[in-house]
Amino acid sequence: MIDLEILRLELNYLKTGVREMIGESEEREIGEAINLLVFCFLNPTNYTSPDISKAIQLIKEHLGVIQEVMGPNEYEIFKSNLITIGSLLKRLKFESSILS
Question: Which domain holds residue 63?
Answer without folding.
Answer: 2-99
